[in-house]
Design a protein that fits this description.
mainly alpha
Length: 153
């Protein structure tokens, strides 16, 4: 009887211990994924010239990007309060130091020029990665045509 009581009282403790170990493992795995960096080569894209490419880029940015990055694309808190702050997409923000090849590589691979992974839950890089080179080039042209604004964040 005593052995049975010991087993009954130890079983919940063992389960709690296993749950704590599993939670710790998931936490460490998530942290490692977020801090992981990659080396991604930029892909050269021929930048089209002209008003049509700029207009296409403006349309894509205003329909897709402005929701999270703000109407003026200077970043800030997206409508979803659980989302991380969106970066400034104007030349005054982090894209100001990027080349068009850097932007294309990030949107195709999900890795920024500094090797940080973009979280596909908040930044739909896999969606953008399916765009044609001319569409991505139009995005770049439009973003570079914006005034350099200070980040809202």
């Amino acid at each position: 009887m005593r052995k049975l009581l010991i087993r009954i009282t130890m079983t919940p403790g063992a389960l709690v211990g296993l749950l704590l170990l599993a939670a710790l493992d998931l936490s460490l795995a998530g942290s490692a994924r977020l801090s992981r960096t990659h080396d991604v080569r930029a892909e050269a894209v021929a930048i089209p010239a002209g008003e049509a490419a700029l207009a296409r880029g403006a349309h894509l940015v205003n329909v897709i990007c402005a929701t999270c990055h703000g109407a003026n694309l200077a970043g800030g808190q997206p409508p979803d309060p659980a989302a991380p702050p969106a970066p400034n997409l104007t030349p005054g923000g982090s894209l100001g130091a990027c080349t068009e090849d850097d932007l294309v590589a990030a949107l195709r691979s999900g890795v920024t020029p500094i090797g940080r992974e973009l979280n596909p839950e908040w930044m739909p890089w896999e969606f953008f990665g399916q765009f044609a080179g001319a569409e991505l080039a139009g995005l770049w042209l439009y973003l570079q045509s914006l005034p350099a604004l200070e980040a809202v964040v």
